[in-house]
Design goal:
alpha+beta, Arc Repressor Mutant, subunit A, six-stranded antiparallel β-sheet, two-stranded antiparallel ribbon, 7 helices, 10 strands, 31% strand, elongated
Amino acid sequence: MSSSTHSAIQLSDAVDRSIPTPYYYQLQEYLIHLIQTGELKSGDQLPTELEICSSTNLSRTVIRQAIQELVNEGYLERFRAKGTFVARPKVAERLVQSLTGFYEDIIARGQQPVTRVLSFEVIPATSQVAHELQIRIGEPVIYLYRLRFIDRDPIVLVATYLPRFMCPDLVNENLEVQSLYQVLAKRYNLVISRALRSVEAVAATAEESHLLEVEKGAPLLLLKSTGFLADGRPLEYFVARHRGNRAKFEVELVRTATNPGY
């Protein structure tokens, strides 16, 4: 995060009181203009609400509405006890067209992923996990809970489940410095060939907000995935919670019909 504070940016011309456009919307559009033209750069800190009040003669209610909508739209991000900053670029992950793991995907983009393993143990399968992995309820599964960073920013919390009988010694591996998919391929000859995935929006719990450094209730992107081997056996079920203000998913659609169309 940049330490640059733009308390001196020119905001006196942000609002034209002679037109009927709502003040919050004018302020919003003005700040977007400053971001798009580079006067406000990624990681720059905005002036405080009181400073913006002084510059624009607008009420704090109007300013809060404008800033909150820009946070919701991904232009700004807030940090408790630190302030409001211009959002950093979202991390794009290939949702459909690639079955590489997070580590490989981020390395390919020239960024540096870091993993903190929060839990790595054998547990009995819950009904949901057993259903996804097509095993019996209570059967041993390897549970891997990780917090993953890009360029020192926490990006995603991932809970991963694998049948223990397919990779019995996996818990002895150090997965803070290795890719899970690479270990599965090299040590166990297990490679995911297809996956079923779903995405939905959820609100951050108190624990998730603490680990991902967002406010409680902040939007997260919840990604669920079941990965299958070439013979159809499920190998991996994971539930990932991505920071909504730092992640986006790219989807590629492919026409498979033999009819060339119109």
